[in-house]
Amino acid sequence: MNLLAVDIGNTDIKFGIFRDGELTQQWRASGTRTHPEKFSAMLRDSLARTGVDFGALVYTSVVPDIELVFRKTIQYCFHLPDARIFAVNPQTIQLPLDFSHYPLEQLGMDRLVNACSARLLYPNTPLIVVDMGTATTFDLVSADGVYLGGAITPGLRTFMDSLTLKAPRLPEVSLIDKSYDTLKMGSNTVACIEAGLGLGYRGLMTELLLASRETLNLNTLHQTPEELAEQLFGEDAALAPCTIATGGLAESVIRIGGMADDFQVIDPLLTLKGLQLLYTYNRTRQPVGVPG
Description:
Layout: E1 2-8, E2 12-19, E3 22-30, H1 39-48, E4 56-61, H2 64-78, E5 85-87, H3 109-121, E6 127-132, E7 135-141, E8 147-154, H4 156-166, H5 189-215, H6 225-233, E9 242-246, H7 250-257, E10 265-266, H8 270-284
Parallel strand pairs: 1-4, 4-5, 6-9, 9-10
Antiparallel strand pairs: 1-2, 2-3, 6-7, 7-8
Helix pairs in contact: 1-2, 3-8
């Protein structure tokens, strides 16, 4: 059976088709908020082009306004009964993490899915999950499976757009061809903005990674999990943190910030994988990596 996984985000919608636990197709569509009136037609056309039938759907959404349209479109066009539609809702599903230290009604479903996905993929390991999109979010998970919260900050593109919006006389700049070794304090207005955005965002990221590691009692940056394990825990490598980057802007932020050494895993598909993992976790009731 093919499983359709859909992640409805603030800017894009990400789709994935899984067969026997393997991701066989994935794509994204834009315009979640900018063209809500076209959402139903876009959804029908996007799924029809795959040429694949699917027997079940798992989804998450951070855009409540279009969630009802989404479900009705799926049911009408693809004849899926409610029993085959699995919405990620912490009130009605089983979760592989202890969320008792955080009010679940305040937690975005994308953050919840990312944290659960990381836990199921990397059990019994302290985790820092950084999702870089419209917002950049940090989510922390202890080695024994307790969700510890994190941080939310504007994403790099949001960070850049806010400057143009609030200071319209400043020129727009692009960091698309920039990397950390090309950024320096500027000698003209464009170079000054590039330095402020690129180096400034690196500073923001570095400080939040430091705070994340301090929360996990691991405050050493720029080291691999193996090096951290050797330095801090000797032979007990399982206690070393795994820092995971995901999201549509992850590769750009890491390149511009020169932060490749700060992340052990770069997985742009973490959320889609998490949807499939949560679906399977709830269907089979297999306690993979569940806190004991």
